[in-house]
């Protein structure tokens, strides 16, 4: 079945809001001049003969340029008069809107600084109140405002006509308002000159003076409203957006009857848009009528206002405020979209500012690092020069010719000269050599071998002399050489002066100090070049790593969307705000299977969109035959809500981002600072993955005295509080980029030298209660409290019993079972009180569903796979393997790793299938199957490497005996390393062809996930998380495809040797018989994402449902 659906689009985008915005500076005169335009049906109204001497009315267009006002609230009432709404109510209202309207609002402190009653005043005007002495200035301002509204990309779209809307408003500053009559007339004329000639202005003034009919009608309006007791009326009577209106106020009927000054202040759309303040002026209408003009922006659907005396006496319509409805395209829902757009732009601006700050900070760090590196290079160059200088001085003491062995002619020479070096072969190791060569250098071989010449026989008679013509290097202080029976790389007999080499000083050499200065610079430049090459290599590698991560995350998101395709999906798959999508639903896989009708209900933003849920729609059969789509409306019936999780589809391109969720993990382990088992890895890795999605994550942990604090950054004392009869110190630090709070009670509960094993129930119970008390006393308001296993299970019921209605009411509790073998009583109690509960794989959740601690709570129990940390287990950035590799060069990388592994253990360096086993040696891990697999692999002419130890001494001794036996019988094909070695585990994962995991039960298992990350093929027993992650290449194709995966390993069902043989034999045969296929399988498993990318998305879904 299918349906068509249109997600809300960003209504306040440039094309829809500003694409047709046009600007015009309108004349702002007395109300009579505008009556024809304001109310088309009215006859022309004559103006008073005193029109030209009256002060022009001024409209208010709130600001978009200059210093943004901050919003205002009226002062409390003093004296007589009716006070504006309660001060705190107004402040709260305006504070709530500060984000969206702060750009256009005016603070009360700013307002109170204004001067009224004849003094200089500050108001915000429409274009009709433009002050100044030159039209050019106003035109320039208009251009600036217009450019600001359009943005750089839209400047070519703008035109200039009609009154400017929200974009062009801040034409007048507080100090520019003119006060005397002459100035006001001048301002009016200057303003009119923007669009009208002087002649046109005079003609309009004459028209206003003679429009007596219009004046009489206005008088009738005033008299009628006064007779009815109305304090306020407006012209035109129908208020429309994007027009100027005139508001009339009768002072004598109000609390301001005795006040000399009357001002109006207000805003639009329920006091949420563009605050304004304007001084009103006495009219010449009969009665005490005052008026002012006001521009109504296109975004307005309502005007809210009050009157006051510029101080603290208000007329606010008996605390109900005055309001006018505005006719136009805007309504309350559409205005909400505008506010969202304003919010989005503010967030974009903040994000851009933050990005710029980060860029500047990064640039500063780069400069500081560059400076530090340069200083380090200089220091290293000095050290190297000093060492070389000392070594050269030792050599120079040996640089004396031996008359019967060697000498140089001429005896005085300099760099660049050719000299003849003589050698007497007769009494040396080369006495019987057929040819003699000199291998030489200079300055204690500072540049290595630089001289290689064959010696010729000399005609000297006093010995067996040979000689060679040698060019002295320019910067040589000392010549260094040996004699040999052949050229470099081919000689095998040397005369090296009894291992001291031969040396000769250069008599007329360059100054030694100058040489060492140059040498120091040369070394410094070399170090700089080497460092830059390394930095460039690191940068390129980091860029590739980031790209690979991004590609993996994108693939995983797509798979996450497709994972429910057998039930529900959309076309297109990537849903964008503002576009039409079709929703397809297959009821045959749900509780609605077989129902004659299917209806669809939905909303947006997790049911929080201001438009609310859409009306239910009936679905019709789609063309694919299995799905249905939506048509019309009906309520009621049975719901398929994904077992309480609801169906969710991400939407991109919208105005808003999903609000961040605040998650607090309360746990007793955290890698790498307090890790005993897999719990510590999960707490750290899950927290990092959720934080990378843009959410706020904190961790609360006991401060053990055995904790490794070297991995905690910015560790410092945070606060202390009293609870449980003792003081609890709270420390703070960053671990793997996560905020961690460490609780240290003075009662010494966590100063026992270990994490587990010392009255754990009491210690961890105290910790759980102290963690909740810390959150309560610190005023924290988390959305989710996530506790783990029996050790922090008390959080669930302590929260519900003591804190749910006492300061932490917003929180919901999520409880995760990592292993049901320990603390079942605590786990059952936590299951009762938790809002949602999980375990570490879907299959394990089914396997334990019959446990009495879990079975009553299956409605809130979910299985979510664990993941692996890609920063730790990454063959492309692994320092423990010889060659970095990705799926692109997996064959070469694994070949190098296998050779290194064989060499380390003394195994035969041959191309044989290698089975790796990395495990704790316990009954759970299937030790009887491990023993059988070792023998079976050897029978199949394979190699085996085992890494692991047993906590049970009997099992450990049993494997020691097995190791002695197989090392003796198959020394070149098997090695059992009965300990745990983290670096070695990396090499085994990379060097093995297969990784064996024959566990009898396995809640999740990370070994098989790490194996695939390194391109090793898992051979596993089909249980728990092993079943959920390994899909047999022969038997699980359909099951894999249902998860949008390809088969990735070998598996077996039974717990006996024959079941293991079935999987292991197929794996080894595939290696021997189909190497090309096997290599493609290695590449395939490397490209599958078993990180925390998808589990983090699933946990966020769970968190949202827990809060629903």
Textual characterization of the structure:
GO terms for molecular function: alpha-1,4-glucan glucosyltransferase (ADP-glucose donor) activity; alpha-1,4-glucan glucosyltransferase (UDP-glucose donor) activity; starch binding. By secondary structure, the protein is α/β, with parallel strands linked by helices. Helix content is 35%, strand content 18%. The chain is built from 27 helices and 41 strands. It has a nine-stranded mixed β-sheet, with helices on both faces. The two termini are 27 Å apart.
What does this entry show, briefly?
This protein has 27 helices and 41 strands.
Sheet with the most strands?
9 strands, mixed
Strand order of the biggest β-sheet: 29-30-31-28-27-32-33-34-35
Strand content: 15-25%
By secondary-structure content and strand pairing, the structural class works out as alpha/beta
What is the number of strand segments? 41
Helix content: 25-40%
Number of helices: 27
- The average pLDDT score comes to 82
Contiguous runs where pLDDT drops below 50 for at least 5 residues:
9-202, 205-210, 629-634
Based on CA atoms alone, the radius of gyration comes out at 43 Å
Rounded to the nearest angstrom, the distance between the terminal CA atoms is 27 Å
Report the principal-axis shape: extended
List keywords for this structure.
1108 residues; alpha/beta; 27 helices; glycosyltransferase; transit peptide
């Amino acid at each position: 079945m299918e349906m068509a659906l249109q997600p809300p689009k960003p209504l306040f985008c440039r094309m829809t809001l500003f694409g047709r915005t046009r600007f015009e500076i309108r004349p702002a005169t007395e109300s009579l001049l505008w009556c024809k335009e304001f109310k088309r049906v009215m006859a022309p109204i004559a103006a008073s003969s005193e029109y030209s001497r009256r002060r022009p009315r001024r409209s208010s267009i709130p600001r978009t340029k200059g210093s943004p006002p901050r919003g205002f609230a009226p002062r409390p009432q003093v004296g007589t008069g009716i006070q504006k709404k309660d001060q705190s109510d107004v402040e709260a209202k305006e504070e709530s809107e500060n984000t969206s309207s702060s750009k256009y609002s005016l603070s009360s402190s700013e307002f109170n600084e204004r001067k009224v009653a004849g003094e200089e005043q500050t108001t915000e005007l429409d274009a009709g109140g433009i002050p100044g002495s030159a039209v050019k200035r106003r035109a320039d301002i208009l251009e600036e405002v217009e450019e600001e509204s359009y943005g750089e990309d839209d400047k070519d779209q703008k035109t200039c006509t009609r009154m400017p809307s929200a974009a062009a408003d801040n034409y007048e500053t507080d100090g520019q308002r003119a006060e005397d009559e002459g100035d006001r007339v001048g301002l009016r004329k200057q303003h009119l000159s923007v669009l009208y000639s002087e002649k046109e202005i005079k003609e309009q003034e004459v028209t206003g003076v003679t429009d007596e009919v219009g004046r009489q009608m206005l008088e009738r309006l005033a008299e009628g409203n006064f007779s009815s007791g109305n304090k306020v009326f407006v012209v035109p009577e129908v208020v429309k957006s994007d027009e100027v209106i005139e508001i009339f106020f009768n002072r004598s009927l109000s609390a301001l009857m005795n006040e000399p000054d009357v001002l109006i202040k207000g805003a639009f759309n329920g006091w949420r848009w563009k605050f304004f303040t304007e001084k009103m002026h006495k009219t010449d209408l009969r009665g005490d009528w005052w008026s002012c003009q006001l521009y109504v922006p296109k975004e307005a659907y309502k005007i809210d206002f009050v009157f006051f005396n510029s101080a603290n006496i208000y007329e606010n319509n008996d605390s109900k405020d005055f309001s006018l409805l505005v006719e136009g395209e805007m309504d309350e829902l559409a205005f909400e979209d505008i506010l969202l757009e304003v919010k989005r732009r503010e967030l974009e601006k903040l994000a851009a500012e933050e990005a710029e700050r980060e860029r500047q900070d990064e640039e500063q760090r780069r400069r500081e690092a560059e400076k530090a590196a340069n200083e380090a290079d200089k220091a290293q160059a000095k050290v190297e020069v000093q060492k070389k200088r000392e070594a050269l001085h030792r050599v120079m003491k040996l640089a004396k010719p031996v008359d019967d062995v060697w000498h140089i002619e001429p005896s005085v020479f300099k760099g660049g000269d050719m000299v003849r070096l003589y050698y007497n072969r007769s009494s040396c190791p080369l006495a019987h050599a057929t040819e003699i060569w000199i291998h030489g250098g200079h300055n204690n071989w500072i540049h290595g071998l630089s001289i290689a010449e064959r010696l010729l026989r000399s005609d000297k008679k006093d010995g067996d002399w040979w000689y060679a013509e040698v060019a002295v290097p320019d910067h040589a202080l000392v010549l260094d050489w040996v004699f040999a029976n052949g050229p470099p790389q081919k000689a095998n007999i040397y005369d090296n002066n009894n291992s001291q080499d031969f040396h000769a000083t250069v008599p007329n050499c360059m100054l030694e100090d100058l040489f060492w200065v140059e040498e120091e610079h040369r070394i410094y430049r070399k170090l700089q070049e080497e460092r830059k090459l390394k930095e460039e290599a690191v940068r390129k590698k980091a860029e590739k790593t980031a790209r690979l991560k991004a590609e993996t995350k994108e693939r995983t998101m797509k798979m996450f969307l497709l994972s429910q395709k057998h039930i529900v999906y959309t076309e297109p798959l990537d849903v964008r705000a503002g576009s039409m999508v079709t929703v397809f639903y297959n009821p045959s896989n749900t509780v609605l299977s077989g129902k004659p009708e299917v209806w669809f209900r939905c909303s947006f933003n997790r049911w929080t969109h201001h438009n609310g849920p859409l009306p239910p729609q009936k679905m019709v059969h789609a063309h694919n035959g299995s799905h249905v789509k939506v048509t019309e409306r009906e309520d009621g019936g049975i719901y398929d809500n994904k077992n309480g999780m609801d169906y969710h589809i991400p939407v991109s391109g919208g105005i808003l981002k999903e609000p961040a969720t605040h998650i607090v993990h309360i746990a007793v382990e955290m890698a790498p600072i307090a890790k005993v088992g897999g719990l510590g890895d999960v707490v750290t890795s899950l927290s990092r993955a959720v934080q990378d999605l843009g959410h706020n994550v904190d961790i609360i942990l006991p401060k053990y005295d055995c904790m490794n604090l070297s991995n905690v950054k910015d560790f410092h004392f945070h606060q202390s509080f009293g609870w449980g009869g003792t003081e609890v110190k709270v420390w703070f630090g960053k671990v793997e980029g996560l905020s961690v709070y460490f609780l240290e009670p003075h009662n010494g509960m966590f100063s026992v030298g270990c994490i587990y094993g010392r009255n754990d129930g009491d210690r961890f119970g105290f910790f759980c209660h102290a963690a909740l008390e810390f959150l309560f006393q610190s005023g924290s308001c988390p959305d989710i409290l996530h506790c783990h296993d029996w050790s922090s299970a008390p959080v669930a019921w302590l929260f519900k019993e003591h804190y749910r209605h006492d300061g932490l009411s917003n929180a919901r509790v999520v409880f995760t079972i990592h292993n049901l073998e320990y603390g079942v009583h605590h786990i059952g109690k936590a299951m009762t009180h938790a809002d949602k509960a999980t375990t570490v794989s879907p299959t394990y959740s089914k396997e334990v569903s019959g446990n009495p601690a879990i079975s009553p709570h299956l409605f809130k129990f979910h299985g979510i796979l664990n993941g692996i940390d890609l920063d730790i287990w990454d063959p492309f950035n692994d320092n423990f393997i010889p060659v970095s590799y990705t799926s692109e060069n997996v064959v070469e990388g694994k070949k190098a790793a296998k050779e290194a592994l064989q060499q380390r253990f003394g195994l035969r360096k041959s191309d044989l299938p290698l089975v790796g086993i990395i495990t704790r040696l316990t009954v759970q891990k299937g030790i009887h199957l491990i023993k059988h697999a070792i023998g079976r692999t050897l029978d199949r002419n394979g190699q085996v490497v085992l890494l692991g130890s047993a906590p049970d001494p009997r099992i450990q001794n049993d494997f020691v005996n097995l190791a002695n036996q197989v090392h003796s019988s198959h020394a070149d094909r098997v090695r059992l390393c009965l300990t745990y070695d983290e670096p070695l585990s990396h090499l085994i994962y990379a060097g093995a062809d297969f990784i064996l995991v024959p566990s009898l039960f396995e809640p999740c298992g990370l070994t098989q996930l790490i194996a695939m990350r390194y391109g090793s093929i898992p051979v596993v027993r089909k249980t728990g998380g092993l079943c959920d992650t390994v899909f047999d290449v022969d038997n699980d194709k359909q099951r894999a495809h249902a998860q949008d995966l390809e088969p990735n390993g070998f598996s077996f069902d039974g717990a006996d040797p024959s079941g293991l043989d079935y999987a292991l034999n197929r794996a080894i045969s595939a290696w021997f018989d189909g190497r090309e296929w096997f290599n493609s399988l290695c590449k395939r498993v490397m490209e599958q994402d078993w990180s925390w990318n998808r589990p983090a998305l699933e946990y966020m879904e769970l968190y949202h449902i827990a809060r629903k």
